[in-house]
What we know:
Blueprint: E1 2-5, E2 9-12, E3 21-23, E4 34-36, E5 39-41, H1 55-66, H2 72-85, H3 91-104, H4 109-120, E6 132-135, H5 144-167, E7 174-175, E8 178-179, H6 185-188, E9 191-194, E10 201-204, E11 214-219, E12 222-227, H7 238-251, H8 268-278, H9 282-293, E13 297-301, H10 309-322, E14 339-344, E15 349-353, H11 360-376, E16 391-392, H12 399-418, E17 419-426, H13 431-436, H14 441-457, E18 463-468, E19 477-481, H15 485-494, H16 501-523, H17 528-541, H18 548-551, H19 553-559, E20 563-567, E21 575-577, E22 586-592, E23 597-604, H20 612-628
Parallel strand pairs: 3-10, 11-13, 13-14, 18-20, 20-22
Antiparallel strand pairs: 1-2, 4-5, 6-15, 6-21, 7-8, 9-10, 11-12, 12-16, 14-15, 17-23, 18-19, 22-23
Helix pairs in contact: 3-17, 4-17, 5-7, 5-11, 14-15, 14-16, 14-20, 15-16
Amino acid sequence: MILRFCTRTVVKMGMVKPCALVSSCHLMKPVSRTWVNGRCLTYQQALPTQPVPTLQHTCERYLILLEPFVEVDELKRTKQLVQEFLKPGGVGEKLQKGLEKKALNTDNWLADYMVQTDYLDNRLPVVAYSNISGSFPRMDFRDKQGQIRCAAKVIRAILDFKTMIDNETIPVDYLRGKPLCMNQYSQLLSSCRIPGLEMDSVVFHGKTSYPSRYITLAYNSQFFMVDVYNSDGTPLTVHQLCVQLERICSSSLETSTEPVGILTSLNRDSWSKCYDRLIQDKPNKEALSAIQRSICVVCLDKAMPQVPDDMYSRGNVLQMMHGGGSQWNSANRWFDKSVQFIIGEDGAFGNNVSHSCADGTIGMTLTDYVSASIKKLEIIESPTVPLPTPQKLHFNITADIKKAIEEAKQSIDKIVQDLDFSILSFSHYGKNFLKANKMSPDPFIQMAIQLAYYRVHRQHCASYEAASMRLFRQGRVGEIPSTSSASVAFVMAFNDPNKKNTEKVDLLRKAIEVHKWNTSMEISGQTVFGHFLGLQHQATEKNIPMPDIFTDASFDRVFDYRLATSQVQSKSGCLPCACPYQRKTYDICYTLLKDDMAFVLSAFKTNTENNSEELKKAVEDALLDMRTIL
Length: 630
């Protein structure tokens, strides 16, 4: 039985292991924090815990979600399975009580299950299938000195952001006037994913007795520890950082050093086996630990092949996501690291973020801060003080590791060849136009995506929009069901030339209201997907045979997504990018601004049914056609 949860992974339930969120030294969850008036309190007493929905409510909503996908007879049979599941004293009640008990003993039962299921259990490579990235317009330099100056400003901006995290002075995020959990900010820096057989773990070094005082610099597929604080604890100036980066660039010429970083692009089981072999050697273990403990990774990339200006954005998106392949910058990465900022010698700029450590909105806050800061930071010559020489990290490579590196090169090159991105910059209208027409902007875009998919594939599909669950302690990401009976009715009517525009507009408004209601349900903790995931985990943990409701064919029809979508707002013009979590799925990230919007669509070429360019054109046409009926 297959269940998709949150943002990435197809999950085969059956083996459930303890969730591997660990601190630097102890097997424990990260310390919870609440942010009030810009300050962080030790415990999140001001925020509610993630609720467990009632079994009756979740099952009722599940049957409603089924309606667009199943025939009358199948729906009737599924209703019988639901009734059996809901019987007093039955298996459903037993699983529900187990989940409620877990909720009493943890800050967030859903986040625990989600992180494990969606990320740590996932054996696919983190490149493309899990990590997310951001792409900026090309910077105004085209040489090594410009690259170094930009990187120095980026590092200093990150350090300033880290100071706000450490001092607990980051402005509180709000949703609909309510404060959100800020715990993920403490997990964003000095964190790393660790490969493991069957299940990975995540280490957070941000709040330890010995916090990181250095960043990892990746250059020429080699890694360097760069101290970024003076002896008195103050961060290095931009000028001092330039000096340190110039030291590395002048001494680190092309060498025959094996590109160990490319191993992080392997599938997780293969990388885990290599990792276990590497740490048998003490210098290797120390080098790996140094990268894991560092504040972040900053990658100085070599220039990519020149492309026409109108092709640059797409190329930069791909570079940020996977590095361009083994012949370019894919080995100049440590894809397990929570945050990597990437600066190319040709002006390329962006980042790559581990989704297992933090969600896209958290990474975008840091990204926007860095983008705004580097425009203000100046390189003022600092007094000459002795600075420790950056330390190159050395690895002892055995024959079997060298063989694995060659396999990793082939693997990443296949991903590079298979992954397809299309970018739509839509300037015809934005939020202002939609609000003027009394249309809720985000649900409107969701209906446009539904319409576009139907026009390309001539069928409706299961789809979702990512939702923030940070109204609750340690909340992560949930799923808003986008496909409903109302959305199907709107799409079918819109393509019917015999329907009047007034009727189409009425159906559009109804579909929007349904999506708004589903959104409210999800962010308030009434999650169908998450609830079922928790119940499935309870069944496995208690050695209870999986109930028929979860093995029924109808179950897959609702949760086997073909469209994964998310709105991630950026204040800095950064394009948020993600990839499909499986080959048969599209991923669409979009930003919605006052007078325009942008979409990044991705698909895998090996699935010949999907075509990102075709869907992009259909989204554009849908947005234009929907404007005409308003």
